[in-house]
Amino acid sequence: MKPEDENAINSVARAVISELTSKSNQLTYRQILDKHATKIAPLIPAKHRGRAWLWLNCVCQNLASGK
């Protein structure tokens, strides 16, 4: 994966985290992931595109834990 793709995915993951922690948020975590997963689907390996939300979840967890 190219560094530009990783940066784009990290950017989307940060947007997910900020939306989740927003006081005006009315969506569940999975709904937020589904909403943003379409943005990263073309950037992840082809065999994982059907589960882009899961890939995004892993990136969000890594960012939240500081890894």
Summarize the structure.
This protein is an all-alpha fold.
Percent of residues in helices? 55-70%
Strand content: under 5%
End-to-end CA span? 18 Å
What is the H/E string?
HHH
Report Rg: 11 Å
Helix-strand makeup class: mainly alpha
> What low-confidence regions span 5 or more consecutive residues with pLDDT below 50?
none
- Global mean pLDDT: 92
H/I helix tally: 3
Record field, number of beta strands: 0
What is the overall silhouette?
globular
Supply the number of structural domains: 1
Main sheet makeup: none
SSE inventory with pairings:
Elements: H1 3-21, H2 29-40, H3 52-65
Description:
It is a single chain. The chain is mainly α. The chain has one domain (3-65). 67% of the residues lie in helices and 0% in strands. It has helices at residues 3-21, 29-40, 52-65. Helix 1 (3-21) packs antiparallel against helix 2, helix 1 (3-21) packs across helix 3 and helix 2 (29-40) crosses helix 3 (52-65). The model has no long low-confidence stretch (mean pLDDT 92).
Descriptors for this entry?
single chain, 67 residues, mainly alpha
